[in-house]
Design a protein that fits this description.
This protein is mainly beta. It has 1 helix and 11 strands.
């Protein structure tokens, strides 16, 4: 057997060991957290809006000059069950339109209030991010939730 053939066999064996270790190493892939597939918006224990994948049930309504809150945002799995959101995860509201504003209890918090600014419509999405607040990467973005601001 030549020296090249011996090294090739050793190289293949080493590659197989490395690949096998990566497949069984729980630290090789940080994919152990639950994934969000939806979101629920609750007010004082009552669900106002449910988003599952791209299907939105319900809407948010507030009068101009009024506030709807406190609102709690619960991210859910593919069965609609709440996921455990651990440290390092935070929420960012994304509001399209100027009829309303979403004021978080604090930056990154999973709660806040919807403020009616002027009669009209808007769309609100909730994003789940992972990493330092303000600098994380996007894990989930909800479908747009209709917001109606009445007079």
């Amino acid at each position: 057997m030549t020296r090249t053939a011996t090294w090739s066999r050793h190289g293949i064996l080493l590659a197989a060991i490395v690949i096998a270790a990566a497949c069984t190493n729980p630290y090789a892939d940080d994919d152990s957290h639950e994934h969000a597939d939806g979101v629920r918006v609750e007010h004082l224990g009552t669900t106002l809006v449910t988003v599952h994948e791209d299907e939105v049930t319900g809407s948010l309504s507030v009068a101009a000059g009024d506030t709807l809150g406190p609102l709690t945002v619960v991210f859910t799995d593919h069965h609609g069950e709440p996921i455990e959101v651990s440290a390092g995860y935070w929420m960012r509201p994304a509001l399209a339109g100027s009829a309303a504003a979403f004021e978080q209890a604090e930056v990154g918090a999973f709660s806040g209030s919807l403020v009616g600014i002027t009669p009209g419509q808007a769309e609100l999405r909730f994003e789940l991010l992972h990493g330092a607040v303000g600098h994380g990467h996007l894990e989930y973005r909800s479908a747009p939730i209709p917001v109606v601001v009445t007079e």
